[in-house]
Task: structure prediction
Amino acid sequence: EVETLRKQMDGGTAVPRQKEEFHKGDNVRIIDGPFLGFNGMVDEVDQERGRVKVLVSIFGRGTPVELGFPQVERL
Result:
């Protein structure tokens, strides 16, 4: 698993596709990483890289956070 991640970071392989698709405006919960437990709204989706930009409310402001697909789940 670690070797797979290293290859992905080096651009050696494509990010595996997730079963769940995300779209702009989807409400999601962050399930991994430093923002674990936060809810937010998908602002951008990068299918090729397997990443989403989520607007998370921090101190009353929408703050963009870029995350990998496995780090979020749709509500």
About this structure: Residues 13 and 30 are 25 Å apart (CA to CA). The two ends are 27 Å apart (CA to CA). The longest strand covers residues 39-46.
